[in-house]
């Protein structure tokens, strides 16, 4: 198998493709033997063959993508999926917004462990590891273990492990610059890095700095993102209007004030101030108003006009690493990085209405001069379009580790040991503008009086404190700056997480058996994780329009020990060139919830030299994060479809659902409304006008998992340079820690008839949902199953240069979720599931050519089609009779596959410089709109965050000295 390893490494070094793979990290036969450690094992050895599927992407392959963010690079892998937070989350109030995260096997970023040089990297209070905090310039390679590894690394390694290997020796200096821009001239990216290193026989040091600046992209710049529900429905999805509206406050039954509905409920009239040509007259005169028509856009607002499609970011990072050989057998090493990331995004002005005043309400006072109903407390509604909301997130990440490592002889074998202390800290500050101080707004909308010939707030104390009367009904341009200064507020929140980690490992040979060396590795780890989240003080008390949340504070201590054995059984026999097993076990004890042991068993069998067969069985777990356990209650505005909606919900076509809705008190003919007060007009639903609640749960226990893999590696001797890998995987997760989304709660209650969920929400007499609890719980299970196929072929050299072909694909056979124990699972493979695309097939195919100083790479990235929510039963619904696995109702719209093509050209200059010119998405291909993609890009048009939105052109230059 040495021959195979050498070929794969040679292929990886020649391929400047979007993905480059290698089966292991064994040295070529011409090099002196060295000890290596493969991701997924702590055992060091010469020519280690792993029974686990490890995928390697080298420096050249990373550079060939044209991407300067590790998170974006990892997302290109076929086994990677859309993480929980993306740059399209423009309505996110999370301090994790702006980061880049890895999500393997569609199991979520919180179930993907990120290591740097085999050691845990810093993570947020919510358990997310920001890959953008690791500068690309220091990365030697990325190793991706597509297997469970909790017995080796502990918590989180369920979906897999991303191990970032950094450069450890560098001589001289290097500078690299890159500039890229989208075909429409926006989203420009500027990246530069410098690296300096010096090495001697006993020591080495590397210093580096990186700067990366990516401009924001706006929804309004493209037809595909200009409309809330895509270009097919340009007139749909408008939000609350920018001109003032009021609700008739007169008593029920008053002539001209409203009407009685068929169920006897009083429905007051809603009016909007006249605004011909954008001009507003006397707002105190009801004659200057007209009835509000929720079916018309005349009095609504296109919120995407003010939305960021993808947030801009700016990253600065400093890096240093060093190593000093104290003796021939002991070395001192250390590494430190400090990075600052700034992210900025915008959203449309706040849709202010009387319900925004929380429990106290927010109305125009009966004695306010602008009130069109003098003497009545008048409810109102208006979007503050002239005051867009801006968010700035600054994340500061510091990581430092120092350790000793060495070797010593024991008997006839050499043992290796290492001890490391690591400290990591992440500080995230989020600043938001464009919100309203509700107390000041209440006073500005309060009683008025004439003072010194001018209209003023009636209360003298309020006037002294800066109160200015607010004619909120006047619309854009009708609010003086003095009023904005009084009612507008800026909120600030902070998140801090700290990790202290002490690790000790020991590995070596125990004995020489007839089939080879019996190897062992063992170690202990002591880790402290602490975090806190401090929301804006006024917002947390519900004093502003910012989403309210309570503080988070907590932590825990982890003590762990592991043992790993690699046992050779047979060697150099017929049909048993090699047969070996690997067993590992790890005990983990958490101060928050106790301890447990997880084990893993692997087998590798080479019936002959060209073929390796392998398989694993692994127990895994994910511990609750600090936010999971101690997170304070928080508000969120959810988009969902209410099953009880009589036109587009499941009740429209399911008599059983209608009966259950009626039994719950939902009136016949009930219609779900959006924030503008309009009934929803498609089965995609809409955003709730009032906030729902979610929060942590200190009684949570860890998730547990079982991972099974089986595969082969075939390197036929008759085709030198060809390697084929095929792996089967199956992951089962129990006690899944999850917030239960509004759509799931309602569907479980009414469609699936599970009464355990019906107590999580309340409705008013007219059917509107007023409260809903999405708090975390250990609920149900999650399963994913599929295959990975890799075909890598380096063709024989020709007079025209060297050619290499690389293909890596993933087939998703099953992805199923069960909401609770005993519940029927939802089969979601092939669906857009609100957060990510669960593609049946993802594939990358690259063709690389190199000749003397020139080279080129063509890459195709393929995504199979997905099932999406129908727009309605009759429109954009090509499978109307198919039951939608997400909602349980009839109707699925199957959308086609997408392929993106990338090209890179490169030239090695004779003065130690190198140029690269590339185009990602050469043909400017755009993916379809997915109406079930809203959760993957809150606030943006429903465009899949995994897809390219435009052609991207870049040019880079590297100079070494």
UniProtKB/TrEMBL annotation:
Residues 49-161 form the TonB-dependent receptor plug domain. The keyword Transport applies. It is found in: Cell outer membrane. InterPro entries: Beta-barrel_TonB, Beta-barrel_TonB_sf, Plug_dom, Plug_dom_sf, TonB-dep_rcpt-like. Residues 378-922 form the TonB-dependent receptor-like beta-barrel domain. Belongs to the TonB-dependent receptor family. This is TonB-dependent receptor. It comes from Luteibacter sahnii. The lineage of its organism: Bacteria, Pseudomonadati, Pseudomonadota, Gammaproteobacteria, Lysobacterales.
